Amino acid sequence: CDNVDFNKEKDFTVDKGNVDKSNLDFLVEKFKTWKFSDLIWLQWESLLLWLFNFFPALPGFVFRNFIGFCLFKEKKGFSWIQTNVIFVHTNRLKVGSHFGVNSGTYINAVGTIEIGDYVLIGSNVTISSGKHPIDGVLPPIYARPSIPSKIIIEDDVWIGAGAVIMPGVNLKKGTVVGANSVVTKSTEPYSIVVGAPARIISYRDKRNPKN
């Protein structure tokens, strides 16, 4: 449900008298923030991905790789996409060569995601490039359009299982993200980061971590 009109500044003011609208009215108001073309694309995208999402063994990899070529904004080479990986806004997703992603991972490119070469993503990772504004109490957070914030994952990055990559982050070349880490800011080249929020504990090239 993360979608936004990139060309229109959003106004989060609300008429307090309309806060208690029926669920149907509420959904109608929410859909007004969407572009019709995006709604059509998301339906088409979800159908194609669903058809081959759980297809097993080597044929499944082949079919999902082909779907990636059809849907992704840019895709290089063969991608090893396991079963039960969720992609959203694939038309704003760029993927390099030798890309691997494990089961249960969620990748939402509403604000654009660029993934380099030789990137490996573990299971149950969340990568979403849309922020939900939280300032103020009205309107409800659910009713606010997300704010796009581009994510860049450079070459030779490994993201461990259960990690969360926050909007606006740049994972520099060679970064390793430990399992269950929450990355809230951009990393340094060849750094190893762990924790929530993630911090540098070491470097792959044996430099001492910063204090």
What key phrases describe this protein's structure?
five-stranded parallel beta sheet; 20% helix; 19 strands; disordered N terminus; seven-stranded mixed beta sheet; alpha/beta; 211 residues; 24% strand
Description:
- The protein is of the alpha/beta class and 211 residues long.
- Helices cover 20% and strands 24% of the residues.
- The chain contains 3 helices and 19 strands.
- The chain has helices spanning 23-31, 36-53, 57-71; strands at 74-75, 79-81, 86-88, 93-95, 99-101, 106-108, 113-115, 120-121, 126-128, 130-131, 147-148, 151-153, 158-159, 164-165, 170-171, 176-177, 182-183, 191-194, 199-203.
- It has a 7-stranded mixed beta sheet. The protein has a 5-stranded parallel beta sheet with strand order 1-4-7-12-15, covered by helices on one side.
- Helix 2 packs antiparallel against helix 3.
- The longest helix is centred in the first third of the chain and has 18 residues, at 36-53.
- It is globular and about 60 Å long.
- The model is unreliable at 1-20 (pLDDT under 50).
Blueprint of the fold:
Elements (H helix, E strand, L loop, with lengths): L22 H9 L4 H18 L3 H15 L2 E2 L3 E3 L4 E3 L4 E3 L3 E3 L4 E3 L4 E3 L4 E2 L4 E3 L1 E2 L15 E2 L2 E3 L4 E2 L4 E2 L4 E2 L4 E2 L4 E2 L7 E4 L4 E5 L8
Parallel strand pairs: 1-4, 2-5, 3-6, 4-7, 5-8, 6-9, 7-12, 8-13, 9-14, 12-15, 13-16, 14-17, 16-18
Antiparallel strand pairs: 10-11, 18-19
Helix pairs in contact: 2-3
